[in-house]
Design goal:
The protein has 129 residues and is mainly alpha-helical. Helix content is 80%, strand content 5%. Strands 1-2 form a two-stranded antiparallel ribbon. A hairpin with a 2-residue loop joins β1 and β2. The radius of gyration is 29 Å and the shape is elongated.
Length: 129
């Protein structure tokens, strides 16, 4: 059982997953700080310094804090948009990197270039005859 666990735990996929979770958690903290410390104060200025967290109403003895819910939804939308921008940026970088790889693959050696020129010249002679 211990050998099977060791084999499973040391597989590349499990380690990659663990690294992804750790980096994801760190990225989550960065995005949360971006939203709470930079974006939300700016949005607060745009909407007149409003902070939704204080909004509530009483229903009997219960206090319904709907402002927290609204604040969380706004933060979610901002986080989702931020992640969308990051993913689009990464995809764009990946595409440009892939295009450079394709260009290097398509470059012909000197021999191939000469053979291509000879082929084109021979095709030209055939059409002239």
């Amino acid at each position: 059982m211990l050998k099977e666990f060791k084999k499973f735990a040391l597989k590349g996929n499990v380690i990659d997953l663990a690294v992804g979770v750790v980096i994801g958690a760190a990225f989550g903290k960065i995005v949360t700080s971006l939203v709470e410390d930079i974006i939300m104060p700016l949005i607060g200025l745009l909407i007149g310094g409003s902070n939704f967290t204080g909004l509530h109403f009483k229903l009997g003895d219960a206090v319904v804090k709907y402002g927290n819910f609204i604040q969380t939804i706004v933060q979610f939308v901002i986080i989702a948009f931020s992640i969308l921008l990051v993913v689009k940026l990464l995809n764009k970088l990946k595409r440009s990197e892939h295009a450079v790889e394709e260009e290097t693959i398509l470059e012909l050696s000197k021999e191939e270039q000469l053979l291509t020129e000879i082929r084109d010249l021979l095709k030209g002679k055939q059409t002239n005859e």
